[in-house]
């Protein structure tokens, strides 16, 4: 099982098509875990600890060996509670990882790609164990620990198996329940994501949803863990990152994503990603 393998283990593929780490924080500090997103896909296996995971306003309770799946459009953050050691195994895949394995329109990530943001992100521990996913994660780390070109090829084959299995499980098994919270917030989240390039002031949102600004701010923060301005900024940075990968300059991406000034975009981008906008291309 995964917990019997090497802990605090990190691996980056030679071609940067995937990254894997298995980490245990003995004394987790909740302040260390910040909202983030991936350029591709993240498959997160929770092993031990106590807390929840928030994805686009949906809250998922963590249980040992449950798996969470996020695509590149989903802002997420782990919420650790208590002082138990926090352990997880995380597989991050570049958006183009599956390209060499796809044929005849088959897309092993389709169930992760084409669903509503923050919905059906979790597979239960029972499903993970009974399906053999836990065993595949163990085999993946076992291969990666060899740190050789040959074993990296083996690891990629295992990752394809993991992706295929998750795709099937997400379609045919009922995912673990998630708490979407206030329905009004779900509508606001959907509206924001569809209108990022437009002016999204608090006044405008309150008017759009026939709600007071105070109550909107209150239920939004309570449900998502972010202020409205934080969420809008995070999602605009995510969109700008995507545009830069498509060939936009940093300045073009800045304004196309809805920012009104390059300076504020630059500071926010660097704070969230740890990179300068130009290095995100």
TrEMBL record:
PANTHER family (alphabetical): ARAC-FAMILY TRANSCRIPTIONAL REGULATOR
InterPro entries in UniProt: AraC-bd, Homeodomain-like_sf, HTH-like, HTH_AraC, RmlC-like_jellyroll
Name of the molecule in the record: AraC family transcriptional regulator
Family matches, as Pfam families: AraC_binding, HTH_18
GO MF term set: DNA-binding transcription factor activity; sequence-specific DNA binding
Keywords, ordered alphabetically: DNA-binding, Transcription, Transcription regulation
Domain of life: Bacteria
PROSITE patterns the UniProt entry points to: HTH_ARAC_FAMILY_2 (PS01124)
Domain HTH araC/xylS-type as annotated: residue spans: 186-281
Matches recorded under SMART domains: HTH_ARAC
Lyase as UniProt keyword: no
């Amino acid at each position: 099982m995964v917990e019997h393998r090497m802990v605090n283990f990190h691996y980056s593929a030679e071609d940067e098509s995937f990254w894997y780490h298995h980490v245990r924080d003995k004394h987790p500090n909740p302040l260390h875990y910040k909202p983030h997103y991936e350029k591709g896909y993240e498959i997160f296996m929770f092993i031990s600890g106590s807390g929840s995971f928030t994805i686009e306003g949906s809250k998922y309770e963590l249980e040992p060996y449950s798996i969470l799946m996020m695509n590149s459009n989903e802002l997420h953050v782990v919420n650790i509670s208590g002082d138990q050691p926090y352990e997880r195994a995380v597989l991050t895949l570049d958006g183009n990882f599956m390209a060499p394995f796809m044929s005849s329109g088959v897309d092993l990530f389709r169930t992760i790609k084409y669903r509503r943001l923050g919905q059906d992100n979790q597979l239960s521990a029972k499903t993970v164990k009974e399906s053999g996913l836990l065993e595949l994660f163990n085999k993946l780390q076992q291969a990666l620990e060899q740190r050789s070109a040959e074993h990296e090829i083996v690891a990629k084959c295992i990752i394809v198996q993991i992706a295929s299995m998750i795709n099937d499980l997400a379609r045919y098994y009922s995912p673990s329940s998630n708490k979407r919270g206030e329905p009004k917030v779900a509508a606001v989240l959907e509206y924001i994501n569809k209108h990022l390039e437009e002016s999204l002031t608090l006044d405008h949102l309150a008017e759009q949803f026939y709600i007071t600004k105070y109550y909107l701010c209150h239920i939004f923060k309570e449900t998502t863990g972010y202020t409205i301005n934080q969420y809008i900024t995070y999602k605009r940075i995510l969109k700008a990152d995507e545009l830069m990968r498509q060939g936009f300059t940093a300045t073009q991406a800045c304004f196309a994503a809805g920012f009104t000034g390059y300076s504020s975009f630059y500071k926010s981008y660097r704070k969230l990603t740890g990179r300068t906008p130009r290095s995100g291309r």
